[in-house]
Specification:
The protein is of the alpha+beta class. Helix 6 runs parallel beside helix 7 and helix 9 packs parallel to helix 10. The chain folds into 3 domains: 318 residues, Beta-galactosidase, Chain A, domain 5 (Distorted Sandwich), CATH 2.70.98.60; 275 residues, TIM Barrel, CATH 3.20.20.70; 94 residues, Immunoglobulin-like, CATH 2.60.40. The structure holds (2R,3S,4R,5S)-2-(hydroxymethyl)piperidine-3,4,5-triol. The site of (2R,3S,4R,5S)-2-(hydroxymethyl)piperidine-3,4,5-triol (DGJ) has 11 residues, from loops. (2R,3S,4R,5S)-2-(hydroxymethyl)piperidine-3,4,5-triol binds next to loops.
C-alpha cells in the first residue's frame, strides 16, 4: 500500500479507494502532491512549476538556483513558522537561543508493515491491514527532528497522520504550536463545513465559502467543547450529500483544538487541524520527544454522506475498543430526568422493576448516589456510596438488577471536585486554579489537576474500591465544566503552558486504567451532554451521550449534525418526559422514540409514573428497536433531507449490509395548510429486488422494486397531520 519511487522522489500511499502522494523536491522540502480518488501510479505530474513571485522570499540553501523558488508558494506537508512561508504554519518552535526560524528538510523514511502506535495518546488500531510511512525531517542547524507518520488501512479511504518532534540539541526548546495535519490545495473553489453549537445545541452544520484570509475555529475550553467539534471538511462548491469531492479531517483528541482554513493570495488553500495553540507551550528537554494527536483524514467523491460513512466505518472498526465492534448496544433506562437527585433505594428498585417489565437491557443510576450528593453543590470527589439514600449500598441495587436480568450501570464524574467534599478538604492543592486568585466555579464545581499522576491514581483506586463488590456493566463518565483557571501547583512556572495537554493525558490515563481493570465495561462518554464528543473519547468509550437536550425536535438537528462525524452506534438518544425539561415542548411518545431510533435508544424519565397505555407503547417501541437494532446501530447511515436546509423537515435512513432491510425516518416540525407533497428517495437498495414498504404507524404499505423506489421515490401520504410528527418506514426485501 506504500511505495517510494526513487526517480520521482515521491511517496504514494494507495489502496483501492484513495491515494495520497508526497514529494521531496530539489530543496529537500516535503511537498503535498495529491490526496483523493485512487490512482495507479505516480509520475512527475503534480510537481508545482517553479516561478518567480515578487515579494516572496527564498529559503536558505543554494541561492543561485533559488530565484524561482519560495516556500510561500509550495504545497507542503508540514509547513513551519519562520521558514519564509507566511501562511499558517503547522509547527512553531522557540529554540534555546530564543529564535523561531525553523527550516525542516527531508532526511529519511521508513515503511512499517503495521499501524504506528502512539505512546502517550489514544490512536486508531488496525488488527490487520495497517501500514505506515514514517518520514523524518530535520533542521540541521537547530538539531530538531520531526517524524511524520502516515498510516493506511486496508481498502478503507482513510489516512491517519501523527507527528513526533524530537529535540536532538543540547538545549531545551519550547514547542509553541504543533498541529497534526496540514493539507494544501492548489487554487480550488471550495466550501468548508464545520460543526458549531452550544450546550444543548451541539454540532449544528455550518457551511461557508472559503474566502481570502485565514478562518480559525477552535476550542480553548480545555475540552473538545459543545461549541466546536474537532472536525473540518473541505468540499467542492457543487457538493451535496450524495455527490461531489469532500476532504474531511477529525482529530483524535479531547482537549483544546484548532481547525484553520486559509486561502492565500494565489488562491491556494491550506486546511489544518491539531492541538489548540492559544494555551500551549511545551518544553522539550534535550533528547525528549513530543507526540501530537492523530488526525484522521478521509476523501470521498460521494458527497457528505460518503465522507460520513467513511468516518462511521472507521470509528466502528478502528477507533472504538475492538471488543465493542458490532456489539449491539443495550437499550437502557436512566433515572436522571426521572428523579434528578431525589431518589432512594425503594425508588430505584421500583424503577428497575418497571424497566424489567418494559424489557430493556440496562439500568443506569445517574448522579446523586455518592457522598452527600443531594444537589450539585457537593461531594464530587467522594466516590463512596450515600448510605442515607442507599442504606444497603450499591450491592443491594446491583444485585436486584442482576437477579431480574438487568445489567447495572452507574454515573461518575471523576475529573471533578466540590469545595464541599472530603477530597477538597484534604487536598486543596489538587485543584486546577488561578494561582493565588480565588477559584472560579462553574456548576459549583472545580477541576482536579489530572496533570498530577497521584490524583489520577487516587481517583482510580477510589472508584475501584467503590465498585469492588458489584457487577458493573456500564459507566457514564461525565464532565461538567470547562477549564478556565489552568494553573497547576504540580508543575514549574515554565511548564504552565503544558497543563491543558497534560490534563488530557491524565484523563486518558484514567480511561486506560479503567479499560484495563474492566475490559468489558461499556463506557458512555458525556460532558454535560455532548461537550466532549470526539475520537479520543470514542477510543475508550464506544458511545457518548449526544446532548443534554432530550427534546425530540431539537434532537433532530443535533443527531443529524453529529452523524457528520460519528455513526448512530455512538450516539446516546433517550426518550424523556413531556413537557420536555429543556424546552417545555410537548411531543408524542411516538415522535420521541422515532427520533431516538436514530441513535442508541434509552428512556430517561420516571418510568414508575407511566400509564398502562404508555407502557404498552414503550414495549412496542422496544420490541421494534430490538428487531431492527443491528440495522439501526450498524447499518449504513444516509442523511436524506437536511433540517439545516429546511427548518421544517428532515429525513435519514439506515440500511443493512446485504441491502435487504432499511429503516427510513421522516420528521416534520409544523404541518402546513395546502401542504406541499413530499417524496422520499431511499438509497442503497438493490435495483432488481422487490421490497415491501410499511410505515410503523400503519398509514402506508406497498411494494416496489429497488430501482423504482430509488429513482421515482414514494410519497409521504397521507401527510403528517400534526406538528412535531414523524413517520418511520421499514423497507424489507421480499425475495432474496
Ligand atoms: C450532565 C449529564 O449530561 C446529564 O445527563 C446528567 O448525567 C447530569 N450531568 C448529572 O449531573
Amino acid at each position: 500500500m506504500i511505495q517510494f519511487c526513487e526517480t520521482t522522489k515521491k511517496f504514494m500511499l494507495s489502496n483501492a479507494t484513495i491515494s495520497y502522494i508526497i514529494g521531496v523536491d530539489a530543496q529537500g522540502v516535503l511537498t503535498h502532491e495529491y490526496f483523493g480518488k485512487a490512482i495507479r501510479s505516480v509520475s512527475k505530474l503534480g510537481a508545482m512549476p517553479e516561478m518567480t513571485r515578487n515579494w516572496e522570499v527564498q529559503p536558505i540553501g543554494d541561492l543561485d538556483n533559488l530565484r524561482n523558488y519560495s516556500l510561500g508558494t509550495v504545497n507542503q506537508e508540514f509547513p513551519t513558522f519562520g521558514s519564509g512561508d507566511f501562511r499558517q504554519s503547522a509547527l512553531k518552535v522557540r529554540f534555546g537561543h530564543g529564535g523561531v526560524n525553523c527550516d525542516l528538510r527531508y532526511d529519511s523514511y521508513e515503511i512499517l508493515s503495521e499501524k504506528h502506535q502512539l505512546t502517550t495518546l489514544p490512536c486508531a488500531h488496525a488488527e490487520e491491514m495497517g501500514e505506515t510511512l514514517m518520514i523524518k525531517l530535520v533542521d540541521e542547524v537547530e538539531q530538531l527532528e520531526v517524524k511524520l507518520y502516515y498510516s493506511i488501512y486496508g481498502e478503507q479511504p482513510i489516512i491517519s497522520r501523527s507527528v513526533e518532534v524530537v529535540n536532538a540539541s543540547s538545549q531545551a526548546i519550547e514547542i509553541q504550536k504543533c498541529l497534526s495535519a496540514s493539507l494544501d490545495f492548489t487554487h480550488g473553489t471550495f466550501d468548508f463545513i464545520h460543526l458549531n453549537g452550544a450546550w444543548g445545541r451541539e454540532r449544528h452544520i455550518i457551511r461557508e465559502t472559503i474566502k481570502p484570509g485565514a478562518k480559525r475555529l477552535a476550542s480553548n475550553r480545555g475540552i473538545t467543547s459543545h461549541n466546536q467539534a474537532a472536525f473540518i471538511a473541505l468540499l467542492e462548491r457543487d457538493t451535496n450529500e450524495f455527490s461531489g469531492h469532500v476532504y474531511g479531517m477529525q482529530l483524535m483528541y479531547s482537549g483544546n483544538h484548532v481547525e484553520i482554513v486559509e486561502q492565500d493570495h494565489y488562491r491556494n488553500i491550506r486546511a489544518q487541524i491539531g492541538i489548540g495553540d492559544d494555551h500551549f507551550n511545551w518544553v522539550l528537554q534535550p533528547g525528549e520527544c513530543f507526540e501530537a494527536p492523530e488526525a484522521i483524514l478521509t476523501f470521498s467523491e460521494h458527497g457528505l454522506n460518503g465522507m460520513s460513512q467513511n468516518f462511521h466505518r472507521f470509528i466502528e472498526n478502528n477507533v472504538i475498543p475492538p471488543q465493542f465492534n458490532q456489539a449491539l448496544r443495550p437499550i437502557l433506562v436512566n433515572n436522571w430526568e426521572g428523579t434528578y437527585f431525589d431518589f432512594n433505594e425503594a425508588k430505584i428498585i421500583e424503577m428497575m422493576d418497571t424497566a424489567c417489565e418494559l424489557g430493556v437491557d440496562l439500568f443506569v443510576l445517574d448522579d446523586g448516589w455518592f457522598g452527600k450528593r443531594n444537589s450539585d453543590n457537593v461531594s464530587l470527589g467522594d466516590w463512596t456510596v450515600n448510605r442515607e439514600k442507599l442504606p444497603n449500598g450499591l450491592e443491594k441495587i446491583a444485585k436486584h438488577a442482576e437477579a431480574n436480568g438487568l445489567m447495572f450501570g452507574i454515573w461518575i464524574e471523576p475529573e471533578m471536585v466540590s469545595i464541599d467534599s472530603d477530597l477538597y478538604r484534604k487536598h486543596p492543592d489538587w485543584v486546577l486554579n488561578g494561582y493565588q486568585k480565588p477559584l472560579s466555579p462553574s456548576r459549583n464545581q472545580h477541576i482536579l489537576d489530572f496533570s498530577r499522576p497521584e490524583v489520577v491514581d487516587y481517583v482510580f483506586n477510589l472508584l475501584k474500591g467503590s465498585f469492588a463488590n458489584i457487577t458493573l456493566s456500564y459507566i457514564k463518565w461525565d464532565m461538567n465544566r470547562n477549564l478556565s483557571q489552568v494553573y497547576s501547583h504540580y508543575l514549574l512556572a515554565g511548564q504552565q503552558g503544558e497543563v491543558p495537554h497534560r490534563y488530557v493525558l491524565g484523563m486518558y490515563e484514567l480511561a486506560q486504567r479503567i479499560r484495563n481493570e474492566w475490559p468489558h465495561l461499556l463506557i458512555e462518554g458525556c460532558s454535560g451532554g455532548g461537550g466532549r464528543f470526539d475520537l479520543g473519547v470514542l477510543s475508550y468509550a464506544p458511545q457518548i451521550w449526544a446532548s443534554d437536550n432530550t427534546d425530540a425536535v431539537e434532537r433532530i438537528k443535533i443527531q443529524y449534525g453529529t452523524s457528520i462525524i460519528a455513526p448512530p452506534s455512538t450516539m446516546g438518544a433517550h426518550v424523556s418526559a413531556v413537557p420536555n425539561h429543556q424546552t417545555n415542548r410537548v411531543t408524542t411518545l411516538a415522535h420521541r422514540a422515532n427520533v431516538a431510533y436514530g441513535g442508541l435508544l434509552g428512556y430517561e424519565l420516571d418510568i414508575t409514573q407511566l400509564t398502562d397505555d404508555e407502557k404498552a407503547c414503550m414495549k412496542q417501541q422496544i420490541a421494534f428497536y430490538r428487531k431492527y437494532q443491528s440495522v439501526l446501530q450498524f447499518g449504513t447511515f444516509y442523511r436524506l433531507l437536511s433540517p439545516f436546509d429546511d427548518d421544517n423537515e428532515a429525513a435519514w435512513m439506515s440500511i443493512n449490509d446485504d441491502q435487504s432491510v432499511a429503516i427510513v425516518s421522516y420528521f416534520v416540525n409544523q404541518v402546513e395548510v395546502s401542504f406541499p407533497l413530499r417524496k422520499l428517495y431511499p438509497v442503497g437498495l438493490l435495483p432488481e429486488k422487490l421490497y415491501k414498504i410499511e410505515s410503523t404507524d400503519g398509514k402506508q404499505q406497498f411494494e416496489a422494486y429497488g430501482d423504482e423506489l430509488m429513482a421515482i421515490g414514494f410519497y409521504v401520504f397521507p401527510q403528517l397531520e400534526s406538528d412535531y410528527s414523524s413517520r418511520v418506514y421499514v423497507i424489507e426485501m421480499i425475495e432474496a
